[in-house]
Amino acid sequence: MKVLNELSENNLEIIKTEIKSDNLVIFPTETVYGIGANALSEDAVNKIFLVKERARNNPLIVHLKDKEEITKYAKVNNSVEQKLIDSFMPGPFTLILEKKDNIPTNVTANLDTVGIRIPINEIAHKFLEYVEVPIAAPSANISSRPSGTKVSDIKDEFDNLVDYIIDGGESKIGLESTVVKVIDNTPVILRPGFITKEDIENVVGNCLVSENVLKEIDDKSKAESPGMLYRHYAPKTKCLLVYSNDTNKLKELIESNLGDKTIILGSSKLSDTSCYKFINYGDTLEDISHNIFSLLRKCDTYDANLIIIEGVEKVGLGLAIMNRLIRTSNFNYQEILK
Ligand code: TXA
Ligand code: MG
User: Fold this and answer.
1) Cβ(174) – ligand 1 distance below 6 Å
2) Domain 2-74+97-172, what fold?
3) How far is Cα 158 from Cα 212, in angstroms, rounded to an integer?
4) Would you say 168 and 28 are in contact if contact means Cβ atoms under 8 Å apart?
5) Is 318 close to ligand 1, i.e. is its CB under 6 Å away?
6) Nearest ligand to the C-alpha of residue 32?
7) d(Cα 21, Cα 290) in Å, to the nearest integer?
8) pLDDT recorded at residue 314
9) Where are the domains of the chain?
10) Which atom of ligand 1 is closest in space to residue 119's alpha carbon?
């Protein structure tokens, strides 16, 4: 894999040629890195599914350079959708809209809807502008693994599978976009992210959160967002997620699960716990979000047999963090509330 450190005219030409030849290019966004292909080419999109080992029934998000492009590929059917576009695009936000026929069916896994996102990251924008086609892109990770948020993590995973990656440094947010679908005129969060339920309520008054956000899906045919079906964001080492709003109870919970080779991944308040290895994931929700995926990968380098991860309160950005960590832990979750 070749790392492109800047978007010079020469590099932009290389990338454009790759995309026009139905090849894949990994690019940075403000959320996580994406593996991009020409969204209008069924063959190019097929390569994403192959390289990522992704289930064919899990649809991809289509990335556009600006809002004017939306109605070329999707229909905006009501004023709630329009308000969400006006308020949150460009940004870490994906809106599920009725698709138009020019988007191949493999992009959307045969659904009649398409996820549309306009990244605000400058490099992503330049890339999307230059290639002149919409870009289908999932997060840059092999399916089930933590999403890629920096080049060194991604390079290991895709080294012989993708030829070019554009280096944009560490992803600013570190968690994927908020995915929203408007159902009966009400926005429903299918996947929480940096744009929160509260942010959406401020704009359109009401916002629901899909019950699958923190729960395992029992009836798989009912999943609004197929991506929620799979084990996700996971290191190879077994994980346990623990949460308490009382620090002493949290420490008790950790003590009772601690083994001889246990990593603790959490905030500074746990730094004095005696364990095999303590890894500090930060003390604010923004820091945790920024650091978490890369640190989960790092945990696999310590020959541990358990990672105990400190959970956070499930509000605001905390909901997005817990949505990922509960899947990281394969729903292995313990909580004591005071
Ligand atoms: O921040 C992001 O969204 C990143 C960057 C690269 O843009 N992309 C990303 O893509 O996270 P991916 O493929 O890892 O996750 C897309 C999620 C999946 O949960 C998928 O099921 C859902 O969006 N999705 C996509 N199209 C959908 C649709 N038409 N209806 C319902 N859910 C959809
Ligand atoms: Mg993903």
Assistant:
1) no
2) DHBP synthase (3.90.870)
3) 30
4) yes
5) no
6) 1
7) 33
8) 97
9) 2-74+97-172, 239-336
10) 7
Confidence of residue 338 (pLDDT cuts 50, 70, 90): confident
178 lines ligand 1 (CB under 6 A): no
- The CATH superfamily assigned to 239-336 is Threonylcarbamoyl-AMP synthase, C-terminal domain (3.40.50.11030)
Cis link prior to 90 (omega < 30° from 0)? Answer: yes
Specify the residue for token string 């030829």.
163
* CA pair distance 219, 202, nearest whole angstrom: 32
Q: Does the pLDDT at position 227 exceed 80?
A: no
* Contact call for residues 325 and 207 (beta carbons, < 8 A): no
Q: Which residue has the tokens 């994406």?
A: 34
Instruction: Name the residue at shortest CA distance from atom 20 of ligand 1.
Output: 227
Is the confidence at residue 3, as pLDDT, over 70? Answer: yes
Q: For 139-191, write each residue's pLDDT tens digit.
A: 999 999 999 999 999 998 999 999 999 999 999 999 999 999 999 999 999 99
For ligand 1, atom 32, the nearest C-alpha belongs to 225
